[in-house]
Input
Amino acid sequence: MARLDGKVALVTGAASGIGEGTARRFVEEGARVVIADLQADKAQEVAKSLGDAARFVRCDVTNEADIAAAVDDAVAGFGQLDVMVNNAGIVGAVGSIMETSAEAFDATMAVLSRAVFLGTKHAGRVMVPRRMGSIVSLASTAGVIGGLGPHVYTMAKHGVVGLAKSAASEFSQYGVRVNAVAPGNTVTAMTSDVVAGDPDATDKTIKEIQRMSPLGIAGLPEDIAAAILYLASDEARYVTGHTLVVDAGQTTGGSAGPFHGQPANVVREAGKRGVRD
Ligand SMILES: NC(=O)c1ccc[n+]([C@@H]2O[C@H](COP(=O)([O-])OP(=O)(O)OC[C@H]3O[C@@H](n4cnc5c(N)ncnc54)[C@H](O)[C@@H]3O)[C@@H](O)[C@H]2O)c1
Output
């Protein structure tokens, strides 16, 4: 039996990157998936390649009516909604906080924060009456520590982590779970755009991500999809309010800490003196 047999999922931002990888993996695991995205042509291509197991719906996640309609489309087209993946994202406002306009702040938060709130709200609307469902939202390592992303992005992603806990605390009584996945650098159009100024410059992006990766490997959409799949599936039936970090160890501080490779007595002595001696 596949891990999502009989389930229906809605994935926002499924035309590209992590969302596309997740939709494809979900279908491999027996789910039917609504591919929701602003990029209609690309999203339609993804849906078409998945055959009867997928439906396309044009959805701008900054528009509440679009999110509500995408949820309703899953129910009308596939009969129910079991899994909601709030994935659509952008980098948004960049640069110094002192030079970031309120308008750029609002536009970024609309995609990265408000849309996750609305996706959770509308998924809850159809999941709570059935007393089942799993909501997985995309945070980031920038939602766990500072300095890994632009200010507004970092603030929004910390909010995604917070909402997973807050919504989980309301929805657990109804059997609906809410979790987040916090990817580290992953090879997608978004990262290639940042790293190389070209969304298709995959080779350069892989090398750059490998360089920063404590495990020495570059994360692919499939790596993140595997974590989303776990939280979406019944294997995670005892897990809610959690943020699963998938980052090759980047947020552990990497592999070059002061004590690594030192014999225990050296570490103990250094501890007595203070690490910075
Ligand atoms: N790639 C990474 O390194 C990384 C790391 C941490 C978190 N994330 C998060 O993962 C998620 C997916 O990012 P990705 O790297 O796959 O990016 P991507 O650019 O490959 O895909 C993002 C998708 O979201 C869609 N989208 C953007 N704005 C939208 C809107 N208003 N309405 C509907 N769809 C919209 C885009 O059309 C695109 O298809 C994002 O939330 C991102 O913040 C990515």
User: Anything to note?
Assistant: Strands lie at 8-12, 32-37, 54-58, 83-86, 133-138, 176-183, 243-246. The pocket of nicotinamide-adenine-dinucleotide is lined by residues 12-13, 15-19, 37-39, 59-62, 87-90, 111, 138, 140, 183, 185-186, 188-191 (CB under 6 Å). The mean pLDDT is 94.
